[in-house]
Fold:
Amino acid sequence: MKSLKRIGILTGGGDCPGLNAVIRSIAKPAMTHFGSTVIGIQDGFEGLVEGKMRELTPRDVGGIVNLGGTILGTSNKGDPFHFPVETPQGIEVLDYSEHAIRNYRDWQLDALIAIGGDGTMHIVDKFTDIGLNFIGVPKTIDNDLSATDVTFGFDSALTVATEAIDRLHTTGSAHHRVMVVEVMGRYAGWIALESGIAGGADVILIPEIPYDIEKVCSAIVARGRRGKRFSVIVVAEGALPKGGDRVVREPAGGKSVVERLGGVGDQISRELGGFLEMDIRVTVLGHLQRGGSPSTFDRCLGSRFGVKAVELIEMGAFGQMACLKGRHITSVPIEDAVRSLNLIDPAGEMVRHAEALGIMLGR
Ligand code: F6P
Structure:
């Protein structure tokens, strides 16, 4: 059995509902069964580089299973291998991994559990190669990690998006409008596709199927001929037109480490406006999809991931990421987890089912 004396936890990248459930479910068994000291690292990897940490008490982790956000804070600017540092010449991106390694050693951590998405898992992979005892726990509303059947946070985001689509339906139908709703998901269309199916959308546009705006238009006109005087279009922020580019709100490298997407809803509204007489309105759901309480599913999945992470430390199975396969929580080597993104197969079952329901997917 490996030493569980000092366990570090950090939450990296964008937050999502369920992070606190994971923190609690790591800390509880670690403190109760193994008498471990649990160290909360603040603001993700930034905290590991800058030495921001504190010991968590049972009180810190009590009553948080239902809370959104993360009690530890997070950051998506703190990759220790590409750390933004202010110099007299401006912001320079430097390798600060030595600082992170020094803090890990100075705090005498036996293991560190990093809860995060694709970016976080890449960092975990690098530290594992260096020889630090890291465990990964997958989170993201985007559900784009391929080594787990689903990430926690996704279900909560779907709930928000589906409720929004329901609401847009009633107002869109009352005013005979085209309602465009832009959802998150980065390069994956999972939020758009699943909330669109659940909300009875008429058109769903996802990054994996570049859209043909004339065909979208024809679908709306055809609905009109059938007496349907309104339409709901769900568009993923990463959707792009056939032969065109995706809409980037802010390129990578400025304030943001990765490119920021957003604005495709407005683009579609302009494009449709060139063909249609109907009123078109755009709603961008944005960070509403990331905020608030986790769903029942995410609380449960997050809690099970946390317990699994402690078990992995106990077994000395470092360099592993907890994951869901079928109904079981298991683990995969981190390098497998970061190999590819979980994207929708345009010829796959879910797409086929959506089309069987009469939903237009832009092609
Ligand atoms: O990865 C989660 C996510 O919410 C994406 O869906 C979205 O593109 C991005 O993060 C937004 O990031 P930020 O919070 O930096 O605006």
Q: What stands out?
A: The CA atoms of residues 4 and 192 lie 41 Å apart. The two ends are 55 Å apart (CA to CA). The chain has a mean pLDDT of 96. Residues 14, 76, 117, 140-142, 184-186, 237, 260-261, 290 surround 6-O-phosphono-beta-D-fructofuranose (CB under 6 Å).
